[in-house]
């Protein structure tokens, strides 16, 4: 690995509860410098700060060389970012002149590198967008000692400055704190013993990691939010890009079953409507897109997909238990059934006789409009109010913008969720490797 300079730390720091702070970073010296200052002023000082750098330049390395921190710093270059580095390395490595010239390390990979450099009893996690309060580390150590815990999960509160950020926070995070990997602290020996965070993905791994360690060890969570996040996107397009990338990568992680299954259900419903009419849409045999027996092929494919998904991933080769995929599929199959009934109501029940008592004009439009209205009220009023957003912010008009933004983001995330619904059927679960 290029630029693998390792700054030495104070080996004489032998606190009983010594703590390493691991911080992955890429091209963000300004925020990293802030965090180093905050760590130097902690009421319970860590033994070392471990910085894993994937920047495209040497600013962070050069700046650290000119820094004289109170807490010793270990620095390691994990790679050097350049446009499209991960894609080029994975699919077009034959075009790279220097095969050893690595691109960026994803944050999870950098975190694992940092933990492997730690020699302390405990390891805690931060990133350059999450700022700790002065009492953060002291509070977590006290919680560990008082309750004999193996780990404490971080609690982060999200802050907003601009109008768009306030709308975004209202329809996503709310004003309450959220469990996050940044701010968490765990025994180093546990993390290194098959409980590291999953590599190879840019998003979703922290959720899966928290689920995994919480299910196996004695854990706690602070009642206060000692971490603050103030780096929400400033406009819709940057937010949409971030959301899409998040879902695209988290599709490979076994999380968010409920939402993935919702979008899988919607996909199946639309395919049930479109597939039987496909040949009529493309022009039958005269079209190059004509597919003989498409309906039969579709049904056989769906049945085969679900058969192998249950057989190999969620069926007889696993412990028998209630599966989120099964329960969610049953619930949303019922919803899909309602959609189909509404769509076919006038044709099947009323036989298109407008004078029939069973005929409902524009029933599909009314149903879709009703669903959209309910969704707007949920995303714009119910969800924000239950997540700490004040009524004076939402009313009289802001709730419409909040709800609309929430719906738009759901639409943007839909492709990622759909991919996740399909890929999560076959993905190998990490917890199956835990003994």
Biggest sheet features: 9 strands, mixed
Strand content: 5-15%
Oligomer: single chain
Amount of helix:
40-55%
Number of strands: 9
Rg over CA atoms, rounded to whole Å, is 26 Å
User: Structural class of the secondary structure composition?
Assistant: alpha/beta
Topology order in helix (H) and strand (E) letters? EHEHEHHEEHEHEHHEEHHHHHHHH
Poorly predicted residue ranges: 1-15, 309-324, 427-435
Shape verdict: elongated
Q: Can you give the mean pLDDT?
A: 78
Kindly report how far apart the N and C termini lie. 33 Å
Q: Number of helix segments?
A: 16
Describe the protein.
The protein has 16 helices and 9 strands. The protein has 435 residues and is α/β, with parallel strands linked by helices. Strands 1, 2, 3, 4, 5, 6, 7, 8 and 9 form a 9-stranded mixed beta sheet that branches. α2 (59-65) links the parallel β2 and β3. The longest helix has 29 residues, at 398-426. It is elongated and about 85 Å long. 31% of the residues are buried. Residues 1-15, 309-324 and 427-435 have low confidence and may be disordered.
Keywords:
435 residues; alpha/beta; 9-stranded mixed sheet; 16 helices; 11% strand; disordered N terminus; disordered C terminus
In brief, what are we looking at here?
The protein has 16 helices and nine strands. It is an alpha/beta fold and 435 residues long. It is elongated, with a radius of gyration of 26 Å.
Question: What secondary-structure arrangement, pairings included, does this model have?
Answer:
Layout: E1 19-25, H1 29-40, E2 48-53, H2 59-65, E3 73-77, H3 85-91, H4 107-117, E4 122-125, E5 130-132, H5 136-147, E6 151-158, H6 163-171, E7 178-187, H7 188-192, H8 205-214, E8 219-221, E9 227-229, H9 236-250, H10 257-274, H11 278-282, H12 294-313, H13 324-348, H14 363-386, H15 391-394, H16 398-426
Parallel strand pairs: 1-2, 1-4, 2-3, 6-8, 6-9
Antiparallel strand pairs: 4-7, 5-9, 6-7
Helix pairs in contact: 6-16, 9-16, 10-13, 10-16, 14-16
């Amino acid at each position: 690995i290029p630029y693998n300079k390792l700054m030495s730390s104070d080996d004489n720091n032998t606190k009983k509860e010594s703590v390493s702070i691991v911080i992955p970073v890429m091209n963000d010296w300004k925020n990293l410098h802030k965090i180093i200052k905050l760590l130097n002023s902690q009421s319970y000082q860590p033994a070392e700060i471990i910085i894993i750098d994937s920047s495209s330049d040497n600013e962070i390395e050069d700046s650290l060389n000119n820094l004289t921190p109170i807490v010793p710093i270990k620095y390691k270059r994990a790679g050097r970012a350049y446009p499209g580095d991960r894609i080029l390395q994975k699919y077009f490595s034959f075009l790279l002149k220097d095969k050893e010239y690595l691109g960026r390390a994803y944050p999870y990979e950098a975190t694992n590198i940092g933990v492997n450099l730690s020699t302390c009893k405990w390891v805690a996690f931060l990133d350059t967008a999450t700022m700790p309060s002065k009492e953060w580390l002291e509070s977590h150590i006290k919680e560990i000692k008082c309750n004999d815990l193996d780990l404490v999960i971080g609690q982060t509160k999200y802050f907003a400055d601009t109008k768009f950020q306030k709308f975004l926070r209202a329809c996503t995070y709310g004003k309450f704190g959220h469990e996050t990997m940044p701010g968490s602290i765990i025994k180093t020996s546990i993390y290194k013993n098959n409980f590291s965070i999953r590599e190879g993905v840019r998003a979703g791994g922290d959720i899966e990691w928290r689920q995994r360690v919480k299910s196996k060890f004695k854990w706690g969570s602070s009642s206060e939010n000692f971490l603050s996040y103030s780096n929400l996107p400033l406009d819709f397009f940057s937010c949409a890009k971030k959301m899409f990338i998040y879902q695209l990568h988290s599709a490979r992680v076994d999380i968010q079953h409920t939402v993935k299954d919702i979008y899988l259900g919607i996909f199946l419903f639309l395919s049930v409507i479109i597939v039987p009419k496909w040949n009529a849409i493309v022009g039958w045999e005269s079209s190059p897109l004509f597919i003989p027996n498409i309906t039969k092929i579709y049904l056989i494919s769906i049945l085969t997909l679900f058969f192998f998904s249950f057989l190999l991933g969620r069926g007889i080769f696993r412990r028998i238990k209630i599966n989120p995929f099964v329960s969610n599929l049953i619930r949303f199959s019922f919803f899909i059934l309602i959609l189909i009934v509404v769509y076919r109501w006038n044709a099947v029940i009323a036989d298109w006789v407008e004078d029939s008592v069973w005929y409902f004009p524009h029933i599909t439009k009314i149903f879709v409009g009703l669903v959209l209205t309910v969704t707007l009220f949920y995303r714009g009023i119910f969800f924000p109010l239950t997540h700490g957003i004040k009524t004076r912010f939402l009313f009289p008009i802001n709730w419409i913008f909040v709800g609309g933004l929430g719906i738009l983001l759901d639409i943007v995330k839909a492709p990622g969720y759909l991919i996740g619904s399909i890929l999560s059927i076959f993905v190998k679960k990490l917890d199956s490797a835990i003994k």
